[in-house]
Design a protein that fits this description.
- With 285 residues, this protein is α/β, with parallel strands linked by helices.
- It has two domains: 154 residues, Rossmann fold, CATH 3.40.50; 121 residues, N-(1-d-carboxylethyl)-l-norvaline Dehydrogenase, domain 2 (Orthogonal Bundle), CATH 1.10.1040.
- The protein contains 13 helices and nine strands.
- The termini are far apart.
- GO terms for molecular function: NAD binding; NADP binding; oxidoreductase activity.
- Keywords: NAD, Oxidoreductase.
């Protein structure tokens, strides 16, 4: 049993913390939402009244927060015990992850953003891309295996965030193309279910077609990962591109589509709601 402090008990962090409790660890969590703390207690964990209380005495600290300002606020607010293993599973700018690792000289730091959304968090099937020292990755792996299935050390500090940025630009692009395919099929009088069923069995097959084609055709956009968060992630991807001094023209287009979705009032919907934006452009709303 390991003492774990878990900060950020949202739609992703809450089931992840529950899995760690079920695996036999002593988990103390903190979140600004009283309901989230109550759920952790119901799952067998402990509720902290502050981030400092959650990290005090913890051998491992996991953060799962919305963006870099929240992560930086926690880093500035708390004092970690020497040798603590800090696993930041938030999706933030690579430069921020690098800065945190430089700043916390008494702490072992990993950036370990995830892919898989709420479903992956609930099913403990997340893909986890990890940046940091190899030895620290080895120490973190037993905890990561509790919440994920595909766990890869991708490089030094910040590398995990770069891979997550690549993931998000690809996911956004695939959603946009699936959306355009649905619009084309429907406008041509073709049954979109039959059409996408065929596509899902060929070279165009992908996980979004597997998991989301039926809900997209039905215009069911219950959030598993909100447009608002994908908008934030596309900003991270564009920042990473600028830092690497590369042009990513398709990424810029996808970022504009996601921004349009947010501007059109779809920010609280699932990112599959890019279909609504494509329909608006096509005059099919």
């Amino acid at each position: 049993m390991t003492r774990i402090g878990f900060i950020g008990l949202g739609i992703m962090g809450s089931p992840m913390a529950a899995h760690l409790v079920a695996a036999g660890h002593d988990v103390t969590g903190f979140d600004l939402s009283p309901a989230s703390l109550e759920k952790l207690v119901a799952d067998g964990g402990k509720a902290a009244s502050s981030a400092q209380e959650a990290v005090s005495g913890a051998e491992v600290v996991i953060t799962m927060l919305p963006n870099h300002p929240q992560v930086e606020a926690v880093i500035d607010e708390v004092t970690f015990d020497d040798g603590t293993l800090l696993i930041d599973m938030s999706t933030i700018r690579p430069s921020t992850s690098i800065d945190i690792a430089k700043k916390l000289t008494n702490v072992r730091v990993l950036d370990a953003p995830v892919s898989g959304g709420q479903t992956g968090a609930v099913q403990a099937s997340l893909s986890i891309m990890v940046g940091g020292d190899e030895a620290d990755f080895a120490a973190a792996r037993p905890f990561l295996e509790v919440v994920g299935k595909t766990i890869v050390h991708v490089g030094p500090h910040g590398a995990g965030q770069v891979v997550k940025a690549a993931n998000q630009l690809m996911v956004g692009g695939i959603y946009a193309l699936v959306a355009e395919s649905i619009v084309l099929l429907e406008a041509s009088g073709v049954d979109p279910k039959a059409g996408l069923d065929v596509l899902a069995g060929g070279l165009a097959a992908n996980r979004i077609l597997d998991l989301k084609r039926e809900s997209m055709i039905a215009r069911e956009f219950q959030p598993g990962f909100r447009i608002d968060l994908h908008h934030k992630d596309m900003g991270i991807a564009l920042d990473a591109a600028r830092a690497a001094d590369v042009a990513l023209p398709v990424t810029n287009q996808i970022a504009a589509l996601v921004a349009a979705a947010r501007a059109q009032g779809y920010g609280s919907l699932d990112h599959s709601a890019l279909l609504k934006v494509i329909e608006n452009f096509a005059g099919r709303a």
